[in-house]
Amino acid sequence: MKHPSPNVGNSDKMVRLTIGIIFVMIALLIPLILWKWIFGLLGGILLITSITRQCLIYRIFHINTYKGDLENKE
Domain range spanning residue 24? Predict the structure, then answer.
């Protein structure tokens, strides 16, 4: 099975990782149950997309911030 190529670049990855960690921390500290789930889910999605370097929304709209393939071809 062929794995999809990454579409999340380095700076995009770092922003997602930072905001994802912040959202998870907020989810752990906030007392309201609904907001715990919202921040936890959004933080988890951001963490997963930063680790895997693949974003479904980017794929749907044909956005690619990953420059690794371009550097290897030159």
Answer: 10-73
